[in-house]
Amino acid sequence: MFENLTERLGRTLRTLRGQGRLTEDNIKDTLREVRMALLEADVALPVVRAFIEQIKARAIGQEVMHSLTPGQALIGVVHGELVALMGAANEDLDLTVRPPAVILMAGLQGSGKTSTVAKLARFLRERKKKSVLVASCDIYRPAAIDQLRTLATEVGCGFFPSTPSDRPVEIARNALDHARKHAMDVVIIDTAGRLHIDAEMMQEIKDIHASIHPIETLFVVDSMTGQDAANSAKAFHEALPLTGVIVTKTDGDARGGAALSIRHITGKPIKFLGIGEKTDALEPFHPDRVASRILGMGDVLSLIEEASRTVDHDKAIRMVEKLKKGKGFDLDDLRDQVRQMKKMGGMAWILDKIPGMDSLSQKMKGKVDEKEFVRLEAMINSMTAHERRCPDVIKGSRKRRIAAGSGTQVQDVNRLLKQFQQTQKMMKQMSKRGGLMDMLRSIGK
Amino acid sequence: MFGFGKSKKDLPASPASPPVPAQEPVQSGRLLDRLKDRLTRTRANLTEGLARLFTGRYRPISEEVLEEVEERLLLADVGADATTAILTDLRARMKRQALTDTEALYQALRENMLAILAPCTHPLVIPGTIRPFVILLVGVNGSGKTTTVGKLAFRIRQEGLSVVLAAGDTFRAAAVEQLKVWGERNNVPVVAQSRTADSASVIHDAFHAAQSRHLDVVIADTAGRLHTKSGLMEELKKVKRVLAKLEETAPHEVLLVLDATTGQNALIQAEQFHQAMGVTGIVITKLDGTAKGGILFAIAQRLRLPIRFIGVGEGLEDLRVFDAREFVDALIGSDTTSHETPA
C-alpha cells in the first residue's frame, strides 16, 4: 500500500541528490513536494502540517552539517520523522492478564472487522498457542453472525453462538462467561460496523466495553480511507480507550496515508496489517520497516522474520546469502525457493519485501499464479541432478522427457528455463546494487 | 410515493436502520428531510470551513482565502488534480477582476463544481424493451455491494418491476445468507448455489430463472475484490462473457460501488474496474457519515461515468438518485437556512 508514496517521495528526494548543499530554497521546494505527496497519499491535512513542520525544524539544523551529502541527510530526517510519526517500536498484543484476555474490535462499516477477527484468532492460535473463542455482537447486518461462525470453523477456533434477537452487551458478557468456564486464553468480540457520528451506536459499543473490560480495544481501519480517517479515528478514540489499530486491505495499491493519520491522531500503535483475503494474511506492523519501505528501502526484516518462522534459521541465512550472491544459483536453489515461498505465503508476499521491487511488484503481484509453483516444482523434480545444476544441457529431447515426466508441455519447460535465466540475472543485479546486507545494516542503525 | 411506514415495519431488526431524527414529519416529506439531515452532516465539515471563509461574504478576496478553499477541497477528498483545476479557474477569474468579493467567489466555486459533475448526472433508466434487464454490481471489499443490491431491489420494485437477485458472491463467508435476508425483506427470489460455486454459473442460473419466470430485472451481486488482483478481475470478466453469451447486450448495467470514505484510491479503482468491465454507472455509498465523497469530482473529470445513486444508510429506502446540484449544494452549503444539524 505504501508503494506509491514510496515512488513519489523517491522521485522528490532524488531531485535533491547531486545538489552541492541544502539551501533554504531547495528545502522549501522539496517540502512542498513532500506535502503534496502526502496529501495525495491521503494523509490527513493536520498531520501533514505537523509532519512538515517537524522536518523543517530538523533539516535546517546541525544534523545536515555532519552528514556526507545533503540529500542523504534529508532522507534521514524524513525517514526518522516517518518512524517517529508511526510509533517507534512494534508493539505486540497485550495478553498478560488473568485469562481470558478480552479483545474488542471496533470500526466503520466495511472496514474488515469480521475477517480480521478470524485472522487474529488464527494468529493467536498458531503462533501464540492460545485457545481462542470468538463471538459476534453484530445483530444488525444480515448474516454477520453466520459469517463469523463459518470463519471460526475455518480457522479452528471456538465460536460463541448468538442470534440477531440477542442484545449485544449480553452476547459479549455471556461469551466472556463461557470462555471463563471453559478456561479459554483469549476472547475476541466482533462488533457491528458503526458510523462515528451515530450517537446511539457509539453508546452501545461504550456499554459493551464497560461490561467486558477488554485488555485490547482495536480500531480496524481500511487502508484506502481518505481524509475522513482523521474524523472517524478521533471520534472512536474519544469514545473508547483504544489500545491499538489494525490497518486492512493493504494488499491493494492505496497509498496508505490513513495509517499515518490514525497513528498521529490517536497516538495508538498500529499493531497489525491485513495483507490479503485468506485467514493467514495478517502481519505484525513494524513502523521502522514501513518507513524504510516508504523511502524505497524494502522490508527485508519482515522477509527474514517470516523465513525464520517457516523455514529454520540456518536456511533463512543461507537463502539471504544466495539472494545476495546471485552467483551459483541453480535449479536446485530455485526449487528450494519455490518450496520456501509456498510455505511463506507466496511470491507476491516476498516481492513486496525486496528493496527496489516495490514499483515492479504491484504490476507483477496480481499476475503471479500460485498454482504455477506446483507445475514448476514438478518440472524441476523431473530433471536429473545434472540437469538441475547445469540447465544449459537441457535441449530438445531432454525437454520432451521432462515435460512428459511432469505432465506439462515442452512450452512450459521452455518458459521455466527462460524464467530461471531471468531470475539468475535479477539476483546478480540485486547483489551488485549493494544487496540485502547493506540494506540490513542501514536499517539496523 | 414510497410506502415508508410499511417498509419500516418490515425490517426485522429496526436498529439496523440508523436512528432517524427524533421528530419526523409526515411521510411524504420524510425521505427528503432524512436525506437533507444526512447530507447536512456531510456538509457540516466542509461548510464549517467555508462558512468561516464566507462570513461577511462581501469581503475582498485574498490569496489566503483561495489557499483556504484549496485546502478545504483537499480535505474533502476532492483530490489534487480536480482541486488544481478548480483553483486555476478561480485564479484566472480573479485576474480578470471578475471576482471581487467572497460571495462572487462562492458562486464561481459552485459553478465550477457543478460543471464537473453535471455531465455525469444520468439516472439509471430501465427500458421496457429489454427483459430481463441485468444489473451487475462490482467493487472492492467492504464498499457496500450487497447492501446496495438490497436497496436497489427495493427501489426497482417500487417502480413496479419484478426482480430476482443473484448471489454471485461465492467467496465471502455468509455472503449468500446476507443476500437471502435482503431477498426476504424485499420479497423477491434469490438464486444461489453453495459457497464454493462459480460466480458466473450462479448469475447464469439467475438469468435463466428470470427468463422462464418472466421477471423484469436481474440484480447480480459479486464478491468484493481489490482491483490489483488480476486473477480476480479475470474472474469478473468471465462473468461478463458468460452473460454476453446468454444475451448479447447483457449485462445492461455494470454498477461500480464506491465507498465515500475512500480517498484518492477510489479513482484508481474506478479506472481499473472500468477498464476491465466497462462500468456504466457509479454508486457512492456511506454518505451518511462525515466523509464528503469529494473523489467523485476526480472520477467525473477523468472518466465521465454516469453517477447513478448515493447510499445514505442501511435501511431499504436509503438509496437515492444522484443529483449533482443537490450534491454540490450539500457539500458547499448553498442555503444558509439548513446549516444547523438536528440534534
Structure, described:
Chain A contains 22 helices and 8 strands. Chain A is of the alpha/beta class and 445 residues long. In chain A, helix 10 (228-239) runs parallel beside helix 11 and helix 14 (313-325) packs across helix 21 (410-432). The two termini of chain A are 25 Å apart. Mean pLDDT of chain A is 78; it is low at 62-68, 294-301, 355-361 and 434-445. Chain B is an alpha/beta fold and 343 residues long. Chain B contains 12 helices and 8 strands. The longest helix of chain B is centred in the first third of the chain and has 28 residues, at 27-54. The radius of gyration of chain B is 21 Å and the shape is elongated.
Q: Which properties best describe this structure?
A:
heterodimer; A: 445 residues; 22 helices; flat; disordered C terminus; B: 343 residues; alpha/beta; eight-stranded mixed beta sheet; 49% helix
